User: Fold this.
Amino acid sequence: MTRHLVLVGTRKGLFILSADKARSRWAIAGPHFLGEAVHHAVLDPRDGRTLLAAVKTGHLGPTVFRSADAGKRWKEAARPPAFAKAPAGEGDSVDHVFWLTPGHVSERGRWYAGTSPQGLFASDDGGLTWSGVDGFNAHPDRRKWIGGLQDAPPGGGTLHSIHVDPFDPDHLYIGMSTGGVFESRDRGATWTPLNAGVAADFLPDPDGAYGHDPHCLRVHPRTRDVVYHQNHCGIYRLERAQDRWTRIGASMPREIGDIGFPLVLHPRDPKTLWVFPMDGRTVWPRVPVDGKPAVYATRDAGKSWRRLDNGLPGAQAWFTVKRQAMAADALDPVGLYFGTTNGEVWSSFDEGASWNCLCLHLPEIFSVETAASR
Amino acid sequence: MRVLLPSPLADYTAHRREVEANGATLDELFDDLDRRYPGLRFRVIDEQDAIRPHIKIFVNRVQAAGVERRLAPTDEVLVVAALSGG
Assistant:
């Protein structure tokens, strides 16, 4: 029987929420990997059973765990993502695996992983062994793209938002904080910056080709060339014909702004998406504006936005929703889920019109993904 | 030689905190440990062969600076994982 899953990666383990298709009765399983940071957990939509988790234990090195039965039993990767050995003082070391993405539907067993510091890795055996994507990791300009320690966020620079074009398995998108959005048309052998039109208020050259800070990039699963992203400097839609981004966040209410971390697409309608604005004023508190959390939705590709806060706390709520901690399911109407830094999972089963708290008191939530297990 | 391991590595050794392994250097010792307990080395030593931050390795109670430290069969190796964090 198909179960509807919400995979919640936290600072202290992985929790799996499950429900039937009606989404009316929920159960919680876990924690898996108690005490270990789970930055991301993703179920393979190609088989509905293979579940990968990016895990880091305290001060031990990072790894990936794999389950072939949707989380009942786990096995560690025989060769986790790791950079190539380099001469002393020149090589990078993976601090943690930050992002996991299944490959194209035509490539069973193919997965991609993004790391901190920014590295791209691939597996062709369902996550058991990983190799570096040398076209990126060994690119002579990689150091320039990602900058130095002073360019990285406090938790370290990350390679995230790995997307495989649903219409072309060789076409890859990545986001890097910092570094910007890049794409490859040849399965990762060569890369091109894709940041034209994106603001970079924090750079001396605001029109530079790279060095931007995309927080969350999404590629539409059913409609060719529909790409959006939430950036450190606004919300954008990519106009593929010109390879130039348009700041659709400019139409957000001025008092809210268009700063945030996650961005979620409607699985069928390419003009509908949801964001979770954060306070990006002055010292960047990164909390709901005025302590009043709200999701904002557009149904017209960013021309207009609507506030959706029915059921959410009306005041004094100061959590953050991280970039990988908001997701949509594929049901009709679409279910939306977000996890907070204070361990709450919120859900909406009417595309954001009303919100309910699914669970409380989890550890700090890093990631939320939906899946259908078989 | 005798190798003492911290609790975070217990899952690799079926919860044995004291194990035997061989090697003429720490590098070789951790290769041998990885053969016996797959995955253990990478949790302690990174891909550039550096001992990970907040991990300390002592040989006969003297801290080793790196994996090139030479070993004798009678040495005792102690791995310590700092308990900092929250």
About this structure: The two ends of chain A are 6 Å apart (CA to CA). Chain A touches chain B through 20 residues (CB under 8 Å). The first helix of chain A runs from residue 134 to 137. Chain A has a mean pLDDT of 95.
